[in-house]
Amino acid sequence: MHGTPDLRATSLTSLPETTAVGGGGRILLAAPRGYCAGVDRAVDVVEKALELYGAPVYVRKEIVHNKFVVESLSKRGAVFVQETDQVPEGARVVFSAHGVSPEVHEAARVRRLATIDATCPLVTKVHREAVRFAKQDYDIILVGHQGHEEVEGTFGEAPGHIQVVGTPEEVDDVVVRDPDRVVWISQTTLSVDETRLTVDRLRQRFPNLIDPPSDDICYATQNRQGAVKAIAPKVDVMVVVGSANSSNSVRLVDVALESGVPSAHRIDKAEELRGEWFAGAATVGLTSGASVPEILVRDVIEWLQAHGFPTVEVVRTETESTTFALPRDLRADLKAAGMAPARPHAPREVLPDHTR
């Protein structure tokens, strides 16, 4: 469906009101959805690095958890590797939006790699919390999914102080040195409701449990879950665009089902849609995870419109304006090359021309 994909999709205008191209079923389009500021920044880092330094630019892990984004950047010259030892000595490597541990930074230094850190600033905030609480000798409970890159990076900041807890049921296995010196922090892309249940269970065990200074679950994760909750009572089927390894996308499916939607499906692209999912449905809810470019949502809208759901209605619960600047060293190199980046901008939600 695509020529050269526009991963940022900033050339189209947003859809502020209900539109239709005929009778039949309708689509309730959640807003906010799609790219968050951290993802927008991380993708921009790789694109700007390719433009400035030329290919190849190596990227440790997936820059963001989305197949389409990774494949698109690969075609432009990004080389995705699992670990720094797969990067030629002295080459340039980008660290993904999920963050890395000090051990990874040290491995890159030993190999004399030129590093660009695309860690989301909100993840960096959690890393700093872990370091600070470890220095104060607290036992730290990291609420998150074992094996997720973000959790691995945060854990690596203070492995002697951190325990990872994935569900409320795992709280019973937590062992601490002093029940009065326990603090919790969290992965940024979790289910707000499930995290609350886990923290409640922790507080039952440790009444003096200390909260992080500010909410660790990022604004975009919370906003996308809130938008799904808002449209859930009105839809018969929910479609979530996002990859299987995208924690926040998977959580949107859970939130939809927990909010009463009869059925919910996560897909990477429109080609994965199945007609039988929509048999008897009058209204389809549509959203996308925080690492999903809008071009994939446009494809889903076009598929749904061709299969009996011509009306598109945006349901907005929040308006996002958060922006993050590019990493300092990359900005400096761009400026030196006469390629100073534009001012940071918030990701835009856009739709195909024919639905405006």
UniProtKB/TrEMBL annotation:
Q: What does this protein do?
A: Catalyzes the conversion of 1-hydroxy-2-methyl-2-(E)-butenyl 4-diphosphate (HMBPP) into a mixture of isopentenyl diphosphate (IPP) and dimethylallyl diphosphate (DMAPP). Acts in the terminal step of the DOXP/MEP pathway for isoprenoid precursor biosynthesis.
Q: Which residues bind isopentenyl diphosphate?
A: 65, 98, 148, 246-248, 291
**Metabolic or biological pathway, per its Swiss-Prot or TrEMBL entry:** Isoprenoid biosynthesis; isopentenyl diphosphate biosynthesis via DXP pathway; isopentenyl diphosphate from 1-deoxy-D-xylulose 5-phosphate: step 6/6; Isoprenoid biosynthesis; dimethylallyl diphosphate biosynthesis; dimethylallyl diphosphate from (2E)-4-hydroxy-3-methylbutenyl diphosphate: step 1/1
The cofactor binding remark recorded in the entry reads:
Binds 1 [4Fe-4S] cluster per subunit.
Gene that encodes the chain: ispH
Residues that bind dimethylallyl diphosphate: 65, 98, 148, 246-248, 291
Question: What are the record keywords, sorted?
Answer: 4Fe-4S, Iron, Iron-sulfur, Isoprene biosynthesis, Metal-binding, Oxidoreductase
Protein name per its UniProtKB record: 4-hydroxy-3-methylbut-2-enyl diphosphate reductase
What is the originating organism of this protein? Schaalia georgiae F0490
**Could you tell me which Pfam families the record lists for this protein?**
LYTB
Query: What are this entry's molecular-function GO terms?
Result: 4 iron, 4 sulfur cluster binding; 4-hydroxy-3-methylbut-2-enyl diphosphate reductase activity; metal ion binding
> Active site at which residues?
150 (proton donor)
Annotated (2E)-4-hydroxy-3-methylbut-2-enyl diphosphate binding sites = 65, 98, 148, 188, 246-248, 291
- Looking at the record's lineage, which domain of life comes first? Bacteria
What are the leading ranks of the lineage? Bacteria, Bacillati, Actinomycetota, Actinomycetes, Actinomycetales
